[in-house]
Amino acid sequence: MLKDLVLVDTSSIIFAMHNRKDIFSITKAVFPDRTVCVSEGVVSELKRISTIRSKKGREAAAGLRSVFHNNIPVEDDEQRPDDWMVEINSARCIFLTNDTKLWHRLKAAGKQAMKISVDGRIV
User: Does the pLDDT value for residue 120 go beyond 70?
Assistant: First the structure.
């Protein structure tokens, strides 16, 4: 069972890169007693998006580099990252996503969902 984790979604990583924020340093500072991690699906999504020749592709590539540069643990998942996050059976996980649809799904499932703001606050 996963516990005491902050699970960061692709959308928050790309949003932070777009706004030139170090999402992992911010998240670690806000939640110093928790392990900040991503799923294999998030890494796969970042890799796929980073191949697109666009600003979003460059932001995804920067986010992927940040995952590895910050030694962020990668959790196993066996399904799409959004579904995996919603189905995790742990009340002690915090979910960081800037995907409004996923945020609402997480809240409806009784999960603690948060976002990163333009100015780098976790809200």
Answer: yes
